[in-house]
Recover the amino acids of this structure.
């Protein structure tokens, strides 16, 4: 039996802007994790909160997981029939990195089953396979942060910068209970940005807030950082990816 872990993530600043090449500040969320166990079985079986049964019959909503399993099995020449059991504490559809964390955990467990060392480069490449299926045009941020021990500044195509010193304080994470599709949100923003310079300007401002926030973190200015987070939420509202419940919580 082989068990492997990954954890959730929170984007502090730069949500959605990261897809367009701007920086994003993200934090690993160790309080919410995913564990995957792999063991030999008579037939290929997948067990998770959304489905329990033969792997071949898994629903389309799990195609990011099943396709990654298929790819890893091919690369590692795994011919055994396997039971893959996934236990996730990360809420689905909340922007907390659920899909990336689940796929990461599965990849790690399969490599551990074959007793083959998994490099970070291999892990992120395989996570990207699943994230492309789940989100269409992933920035790569989630795959990095759900496997990071420290907060990071991430810029698409330019890698990550670990943030070693962070603010001393509390981050309150609130859940509206509303499930949303990251893939659909990314597509919606792509469409709206074609319509008016107003939306492109909002995205540019959102990206600049990330750069400013890094300096505020370095100075330990928690109050000003909080104000900039509120500004970022107003920009997300302009981009039509907020919700009245979120606006109420922020205000």
């Amino acid at each position: 039996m082989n068990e492997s872990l990954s954890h959730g993530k929170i984007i502090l600043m730069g949500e959605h802007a990261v897809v367009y090449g701007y920086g994003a500040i993200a934090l690993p969320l160790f309080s919410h994790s995913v564990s995957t166990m792999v063991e030999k079985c008579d037939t290929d079986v997948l067990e998770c909160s959304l489905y329990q049964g033969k792997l071949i019959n898994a629903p389309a909503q799990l195609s990011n997981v099943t396709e990654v399993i298929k790819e890893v099995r091919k690369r590692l020449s795994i011919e055994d029939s396997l039971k893959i059991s996934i236990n996730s504490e990360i809420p689905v559809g909340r922007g907390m990195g659920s899909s990336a964390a689940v796929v990461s955990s599965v990849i790690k467990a399969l490599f551990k089953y074959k007793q083959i060392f998994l490099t970070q480069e291999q892990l992120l490449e395989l996570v990207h396979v699943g994230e492309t299926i789940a989100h269409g045009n992933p920035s790569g941020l989630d795959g990095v942060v759900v496997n990071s021990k420290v907060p990071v500044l991430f810029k698409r195509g330019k890698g990550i910068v670990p943030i070693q010193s962070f603010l001393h304080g509390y981050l309150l994470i609130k859940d509206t209970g509303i499930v949303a599709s990251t893939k659909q949100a990314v597509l919606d923003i792509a469409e709206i940005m074609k319509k008016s310079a107003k939306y492109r300007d909002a995205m540019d401002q959102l990206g600049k807030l990330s750069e400013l926030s890094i300096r505020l973190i370095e100075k330990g200015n928690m109050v000003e950082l909080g104000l900039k987070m509120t500004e970022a939420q107003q920009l997300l509202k302009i981009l039509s990816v907020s919700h009245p419940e979120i606006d109420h919580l922020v205000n």
In short: Strands lie at 2-13, 23-40, 45-47, 52-54, 82-88, 152-155, 159-162. The chain has two domains: 2-162, 182-243. Residues 189 and 206 are 13 Å apart (CA to CA).
